[in-house]
Amino acid sequence: MPEETTTEKKSRKAAPRNPLPWRDPRERRKDFEEVALGFALEAALAEARRCLKCKRPSCVPGCPVEISIPDFVSALAEERFEDAVRILKEKNALPAICGRVCPQESQCEASCVLGRKGDPVAIGALERFVADWEIGHLPLPEPRPPDPKAPKAAVIGSGPGGLTAAADLARYGYRVTLFESLHAPGGVLRYGIPEFRLPRAILDREIEYVRRLGVEIETDVLIGSTITLDELLNEEGYEAVFIGSGAGLPYFLHIPGENLGGVYSANEFLTRINLMKAFRFPEYRTPVRVGARAVVIGGGNVAMDSARSALRLGADSTLVYRRTRAEMPARREEVENALEEGVKLLELTIPLRMLGDDKGHVTGLECQRSELGEPDESGRRRPVPVPDSEFVIAADTVVVAVSQGPNPLVPRSEPRLKTDKWGKVIVDPETGETSIPGVFAGGDIANDAGTVIAAMGDGKRSARAIHRYLQAKHGGA
Fold first, then answer.
1. Terminal Cα distance for the chain, rounded
2. Can you tell me the mean pLDDT for 38-60?
3. Which of 39, 234, 394, 439 is most buried per CB count within 10 Å?
4. Residues 300, 315: Cα–Cα separation, whole Å
């Protein structure tokens, strides 16, 4: 292609970012259908053509799974759609998921040169467009069975880290078995993220793609109970293991009344709704009682998902957060979507205790006003209680969405696996290797990032390290 002129480059820099279309909040608050609609072809091409094609692209180091962003965007801009798909999938087995739920605004898009003086290229929306184009135009590849003589590798947990590690290990040529404790694979992608952010048809197709790479997926297998890590390594013939069992241990506030009926951890609340289809009761026989007034405590993405889900189940939904909206760790667009749909936000509010009736069911949340003081260890200003400012919020349901700890089952069942004081598996930050030779870990079981894409990055790094480990073990290069 001819070299771009100065005028053409200036035109690219001046072109406005194409807005992603969304469903009307008055309609979407009533159902669990997808909220973001995705780019139409013309908008996707226009957005892709905003890319400056930097000689030293700063966006790529911002991508935990190492996608060659300028190359896939250029292929899209030139309408070479199959090439764009191929470039994406060379590094990322789950692009339709990443394009929907990853925080690109704080990663690849945060490093985009265009963002220094204006709006960065909408890399996430373009990734989604290419992945959705593939779904609409290309069949899944034929199954690729592994070499029956290849070494065996096990992956524990089928969340984003596990799926990525399994896909990459299969590409390296190993016989890979992915173990999932629940009845359907996907981990937090299935039980934690609501349908309106990640449609299950999209998730299922991405998982099927991983299967087609040669990964065997076994569900209803609880590693640490059904079978131990030691048995995998010493009796079942697996020569390497990746642990990606996630953060399945809910944290509570340890305030009075948390044992009342109608008080949920966000983990239970979202699992009932997402994995067990409680929002389609009685078609799916998993009731979840929400009532007329739901209160969600927290300010992260999980809190937004809980509050928006409660709203869709018919409740008047309120978020309680002890700092201000500016300090919320949730993605900006998730906060905006929640407020647009009608979720109320009580900022600078500290929960004190939960109130109940004589039947043991929650009726309200007593709170206290706060104001921001000096920064704490997180760098955010610490909430300081305001004296004599207590008040009560009426509630039929309270969801505690403050944080989660690492799933304790595998570490508790294997004393050789070293953990820190919070129960996270201690790993080499470059490889994910644990205290047990041949055993690696990543995602929320080992790290604090708490995002889908960070877990995927861990899975990719560990798969590469496992490949080196097995090559060395078998005398490979």
1. 39
2. 95
3. 439
4. 20
Contact 423, 408 (CB under 8 A): yes
Judgement on whether residues 217 and 311 belong to the same structural domain of the protein: no
Query: What CATH number did the domain enclosing 285 receive?
Result: 3.50.50.60
> Of 400, 422, 445, which residue sits at a domain end?
400
Kindly state whether residue 144 falls inside one of the protein's structural domains: no
Alpha-carbon distance of 411 to 42, in angstroms, equals 50
Query: What is the pLDDT at residue 9?
Result: 60
Separation of alpha carbons 325 and 112, rounded Å: 25
Spatial contact of 392 and 383, defined as CB atoms under 8 Å apart: no
- What residues make up the domain containing 468? 152-248+406-473
Backbone angles phi, psi at 102, to 5 degrees: -80, 145
Q: In whole angstroms, what is the distance from residue 192 CA to residue 195 CA? A: 10
Strand partners, 294: 317, 397
Instruction: Name 404's Cβ contacts closer than 8 Å, sequence gap at least 6.
Output: 247, 248, 249, 250, 251, 266, 267, 302, 444
Q: Give the Cβ contact number of residue 29 at 10 Å.
A: 20
| 38, 107, 339 from 131: Cα distances, Å | 11, 19, 29
> Does a structural domain hold residue 142?
no
95 and 198 housed in the same domain? no
Enter the tokens of residue 113: 């040169």
The set of residues, in sequence order, having a beta carbon less than 8 Å from that of 436 and lying 6+ positions away, is 229, 233, 414, 416, 417
Per-residue pLDDT tens over the stretch 246-299? 998 999 999 999 999 999 999 999 999 998 877 777 777 777 889 999 999 999
For the segment 189-210, the average pLDDT, to the nearest whole number, is 96
Round the CA-based radius of gyration of the chain to a whole number and report it.
23
Task: Give the CATH number of the domain where residue 89 resides.
Answer: 1.10.1060.10
DSSP 43: H
